[in-house]
Amino acid sequence: MPTYEYECETCHHHFEEFQSMTEKPLQKCPKCGKKVKRLISSGAGFIFKGSGFYITDYKKNSTAVSPATTTKPKTETQKEKKEIKK
Predict the structure, then answer these.
(1) Average pLDDT rounded to a whole number, residues 75-79
(2) How far is CA 28 from CA 1, 24, 32, in A?
(3) Nearest to 29 by CA among 38, 41, 18, 20
(4) Is the confidence at residue 86, as pLDDT, over 60?
(5) Measuring CA to CA, which residue among 13, 17, 65 is closest to residue 34?
(6) Terminus of the chain with fewer CB atoms < 10 Å: N or C?
(7) What is the strand order of the sheet 36-38 is part of?
(8) Who's near 35: CB < 8 A, 6+ residues apart?
(9) What is the CB neighbour count within 10 angstroms for residue 32?
(10) How far is CA 15 from CA 36, 67, 68, 81, in A?
């Protein structure tokens, strides 16, 4: 069941009402009893509940190599430079 937004034409009271789609729109303001109009609203956004939705369904597999595997081992020239400095 959707939630409809209403606004009073007299006192400008803004409120929401949880109604069935087959129910007729409200006619009276709950605050002052005057005429209300139903507003056009964007509705509610999607709510994804539970863990793993993004990870299991939409996350791309990473083919990038981790930084630990991209580091170069020390070359002999670097080792020799350290020995010379000592």
Answers:
(1) 62
(2) 21, 12, 8
(3) 38
(4) no
(5) 13
(6) C
(7) 14-18, 3-8, 36-38
(8) 8, 9, 10, 27, 28, 29
(9) 13
(10) 10, 54, 57, 77
Structural domains of the chain ordered from first start:
1-43 (2.20.28)
DSSP secondary structure letters along 12-78: --EEEEE--TTSPPP-B-TTT--BEEEPP---PPP---SS-HIIIIIPPPP-PPPHHHHSPPPPHHH
Say how many C-beta atoms besides its own lie within 10 A of residue 17's C-beta: 15
Amino acid letter, residue 78: Q
Which tokens is 76 given? 């002999």
For 52-71, what is each residue's pLDDT tens digit?
666 555 556 655 555 555 55
Reading the block at residue 16, the tokens are 């929401």
Nearest in space to 32 (alpha carbons), one of 54, 6, 65: 6
7-29 mean pLDDT:
94
